[in-house]
């Protein structure tokens, strides 16, 4: 089964190129009519990002900015846009791909349109996503980071440059699991025997779960988040929830930064608010180490630093954490002045997490 129609981004290479040509045509028509060329996009500031109660994710507000050739700076931005449009159009047409880093270096041959930093080129690609409503993965633009992995009882069909291949993400992979591709929408789910998705923050905990056979015993589809999860990882989790009707639990450390990892899976991020409908899974639930667990299990801890305290206090005002549960846990953490890692559960034995902690937590939540 492919991505849901209402959730799927623009689609075929031809459709992607049509969107790019449409944008170029709009600029050309403005010039042909004697107008100063311009592009309007949502203002990409924190003040213009709001939490949408209905959808449960971050979205852009109504404020918009204009990129206009009326100034030298604005003209240079539109020139860069034209170069990037041309590059991506040819890339998609030829069936090739490139990394965001390569795009930055490629611009060295663009004269006045050369980027001064990769932050500039990355931001322009994001702007292009917004105005075209096409995700960069469909532009065939890849990030530099390695893909995260998944292991569990699901069979998939993946489109690769060598053709189609079918993979069972438990039987046909090693202990490292199946590596999530950059463009998850090339993956088709053929057979699913999983009961739920367990998204795990750290590699050490992911390895412990696999070594102890947690995926096999409980039908868990274990997804390694690798810290703050990549877009492809969040996209896969959303598709598994929407298309395979799998509940999603996020298992992290007990600190404010890990709570934000959960938040990015469940509600999206401010930086990628334009992609929340494709990446966020508002129904995801937190099954990570709770401040109350630190007290109940007397877990090994580290003291909170000043940045931790500031982050926790900010989360008390964050609409994503505006629930009685989160307020109670965050206030408790500030009171005890402690944080703990997932691996701290090993203080009660290497098998404690798979034999007691997760089965009890997930059982209480209705997953098991």
Automatic annotation (TrEMBL):
GO biological process annotation, one example: DNA replication
Domain Spo11/DNA topoisomerase VI subunit A N-terminal: 76-139
Family annotation (InterPro entries): Spo11/TopoVI_A, Spo11/TopoVI_A_N, Spo11/TopoVI_A_sf, Topo_VI_alpha, TopoVI_A, TOPRIM_Topo6A/Spo11, WH-like_DNA-bd_sf
Gene3D superfamilies: 3.40.1360.10, Winged helix-like DNA-binding domain superfamily/Winged helix DNA-binding domain (1.10.10.10)
Domain of life (superkingdom): Archaea
Catalytic activity field: ATP-dependent breakage, passage and rejoining of double-stranded DNA
First-tier enzyme category under EC: isomerase
Molecular-function annotations in GO: ATP binding; DNA binding; DNA topoisomerase type II (double strand cut, ATP-hydrolyzing) activity; magnesium ion binding
EC number: 5.6.2.2
Keywords: ATP-binding, DNA-binding, Isomerase, Magnesium, Metal-binding, Nucleotide-binding, Topoisomerase
NCBIfam families xref list: PRK04342.1-1
Function description: Relaxes both positive and negative superturns and exhibits a strong decatenase activity.
Entry's family note: Belongs to the TOP6A family.
Protein name in the entry: Type 2 DNA topoisomerase 6 subunit A
Source organism of this protein record: Halorutilus salinus
